[in-house]
């Protein structure tokens, strides 16, 4: 997982005017010192009831804990900070805390939770109006997609940022180059990956802190290791290790020690490899870094099998199996099945060896299927050849044992029955697995397009639909219109009745819009209290009816937490698409007339 740890720093924000950016860098080089400092700030701001500064101090402290490798304290700090960020209605603090929460989930391989956290981060960053913070959250979204194996989506996000958004902040440049390097590594383009990672490393050395440099040294070493350039890999792992020791980053030390152990394993220096793995394992367990704990146990098993320490191998196999069964990782499942097969082969239990090998092959096929968009065809061909050779060897040994145990006349019959039953079971298992994966993928995709609070389509979903419908309207000569809605004095609702009441207002609007709009129309939450509506074949004359219907529906029944006599209003800007309009053109017109509605007294509709 540390290989996917793109350098992620928080942006220059007003904890103390414009010193926030420098504080990020200082915390990277001296995390323990900054944990102490932020504790002092937290006590001070808590006593003075300065909730926004308190939330920002918690955000800084959570990152310092991440730099020190203390994952337990990190998530505790994030949870406490989010409480005060909500009290202060601070979108900046909320975005920063959600970013650190996302990294916590990625560290544990919890991809669904990571995706939910980063969607919150994007919404808060957009609502804050801080463009650089929004870019940071979008890059992290691409990181989550890369971890989930959706390389195409990750690249789409990065390409859109590269085209539409620019930042001169070195931290964001480092994040961008580093993630591009990881993606190119995934598809085997090591030369390009090294080039991008070196660019990120140079920027980091000039402008960022020691923790960031150590992560990039580690990332560069991983690329060299996968490319088979072991001397270079060892050189950069040792540099990452030295920096991690210097800043007391215990988790960083564990990552570097583990990878150096894998290099020793590659060179068959088994004693040194085990020493490294034994030093890394306790820290991974303490930090709850379960995928890395599993990786370390699998590497120890490889050493024990290579040195014929079968008792130790079995103990480690049992521990690793229990752990991997709790993780959603096809790759780890495939590797543990392969290790069990090798163990049973060495103990001459060929029936069990064959069964585990078949499971290993099934898992390998599932992994290959999930990576259809990666350029690994040559590797797959070599794997298929190796699988066939090993299968043939195990089948030959199995047949020899059966011939010794059974009469020649019965052997063919029993073997045929066994093959038929195995084939049926194999089809059932594969079908169940594919159905499970399809459901999981469907749920994950739906989560990424849904607003968590209102269950309405989120910004990404409604904007993409608008773009698609606009393109079709140009080709089909069909009319299309957009409306942008923003609640009037929404902050006063939160201030007077509490944020829960504000949440209920947004939920009521989503219900009213769902009931009031036609099936062919659409709506979605852009963020905060702002909504985007899409209308097909709707004229300017329809706009006022739509506006009144939504306004009446919003106040038709009491809303929890809001007094019954309190009237909730909103303003609406409406515009029709013209020939040659892009989505940005259309949205800007609607937003401009929404601004006119606000200026001219609110609670009204203005048509462009």
From TrEMBL:
InterPro entries: Diguanylate_Cyclase (IPR050469), GGDEF_dom (IPR000160), Nucleotide_cyclase (IPR029787), Rev_trsase/Diguanyl_cyclase (IPR043128), TPR-4 (IPR011717), TPR-like_helical_dom_sf (IPR011990), TPR_rpt (IPR019734). Residues 478-608 form the GGDEF domain. Residues 1-17 form the signal peptide. It is an enzyme of class 2 (transferase). Pfam families: GGDEF, TPR_12, TPR_4. It catalyses: 2 GTP = 3',3'-c-di-GMP + 2 diphosphate. Keywords: Coiled coil, Membrane, Signal, TPR repeat, Transmembrane, Transmembrane helix. Its EC number is 2.7.7.65. Residues 380-407 form a coiled coil. The chain crosses the membrane at residues 413-435. TPR repeats lie at residues 174-207, 214-247, 254-287. PANTHER family: DIGUANYLATE CYCLASE DGCM-RELATED, REGULATORY COMPONENTS OF SENSORY TRANSDUCTION SYSTEM. This is diguanylate cyclase. The lineage of its organism: Bacteria, Pseudomonadati, Pseudomonadota, Gammaproteobacteria, Alteromonadales.
């Amino acid at each position: 997982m540390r290989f996917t740890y793109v350098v992620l720093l928080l942006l220059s924000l007003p904890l103390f005017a414009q010193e926030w950016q420098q504080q990020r860098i200082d915390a990277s080089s001296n995390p323990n010192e900054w944990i102490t400092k932020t504790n002092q700030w937290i006590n001070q701001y808590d006593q003075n009831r300065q909730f926004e500064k308190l939330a920002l101090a918690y955000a800084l402290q959570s990152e310092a804990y991440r730099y020190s490798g203390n994952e337990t304290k990190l998530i505790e700090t994030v949870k406490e900070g989010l409480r005060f960020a909500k009290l202060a209605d601070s979108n900046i603090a909320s975005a920063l805390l959600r970013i650190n929460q996302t990294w916590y989930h990625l560290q544990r391989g919890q991809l669904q939770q990571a995706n939910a956290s980063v969607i919150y981060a994007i919404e808060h960053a957009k609502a804050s109006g801080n463009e650089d913070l929004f870019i940071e959250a979008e890059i992290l979204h691409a990181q989550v997609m890369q971890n989930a194996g959706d390389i195409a989506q990750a690249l789409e996000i990065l390409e859109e940022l590269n085209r539409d958004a620019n930042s001169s902040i070195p931290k964001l440049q480092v994040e961008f180059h580093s993630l591009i390097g990881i993606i190119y590594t995934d598809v085997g383009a090591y030369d390009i990956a090294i080039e991008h990672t070196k660019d990120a490393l140079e920027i980091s050395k000039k402008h960022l802190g020691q923790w960031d440099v150590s992560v990039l040294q580690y990332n560069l070493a991983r690329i060299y290791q996968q490319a088979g350039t072991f001397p270079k890999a060892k050189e950069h792992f040792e540099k990452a290790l030295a920096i991690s020791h210097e800043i007391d980053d215990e988790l960083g030390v564990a990552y570097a020690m583990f990878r150096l152990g894998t290099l020793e394993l590659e060179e068959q220096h088994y004693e040194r490899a085990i020493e490294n793995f034994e030093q890394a394992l306790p820290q991974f367990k303490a930090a709850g870094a379960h995928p890395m704990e599993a990786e370390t146990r699998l590497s120890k098993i490889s050493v024990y099998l290579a040195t014929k320490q079968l008792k130790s191998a079995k103990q480690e196999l049992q521990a690793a199996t229990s752990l991997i069964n709790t993780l959603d990782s096809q790759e780890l499942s495939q590797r543990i099945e392969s290790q069990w097969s090798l163990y049973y082969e060495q103990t001459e239990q060929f029936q069990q060896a064959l069964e585990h090998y078949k499971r290993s092959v099934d898992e390998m096929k599932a992994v290959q299927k999930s990576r259809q968009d990666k350029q690994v065809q040559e590797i797959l061909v070599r794997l298929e050849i190796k699988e066939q050779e090993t299968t043939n060897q195990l089948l030959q040994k199995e047949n020899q044992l059966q011939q010794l145990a059974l009469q020649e006349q019965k052997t063919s019959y029993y073997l045929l029955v066994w093959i038929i039953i195995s084939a049926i079971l194999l089809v059932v298992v594969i079908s169940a697995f594919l159905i499970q994966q399809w459901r999981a993928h469907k749920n994950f995709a739906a989560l990424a397009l849904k607003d968590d609070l209102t269950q309405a389509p989120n910004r990404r979903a409604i904007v993409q639909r608008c773009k698609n419908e606009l393109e079709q309207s140009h080709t089909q000569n069909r009319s299309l219109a957009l409306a942008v809605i923003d609640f009037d004095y929404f902050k006063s609702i939160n201030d007077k009745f509490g944020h829960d009441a504000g949440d209920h207002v947004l939920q009521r609007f989503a219900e009213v819009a769902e009931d009031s709009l036609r099936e062919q129309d659409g709506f979605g939450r852009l963020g905060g209290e702002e909504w985007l509506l899409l209308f097909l074949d709707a004229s300017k004359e329809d706009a006022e009816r739509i506006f009144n219907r939504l306004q009446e529906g919003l106040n038709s029944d009491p809303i929890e937490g809001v007094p019954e006599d309190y009237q909730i209003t909103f303003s609406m800007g409406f515009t029709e698409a013209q020939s040659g309009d892009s989505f940005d053109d259309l949205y800007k017109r609607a937003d401009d007339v929404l601004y006119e509605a606000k200026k001219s007294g609110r609670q009204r509709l203005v048509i462009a």
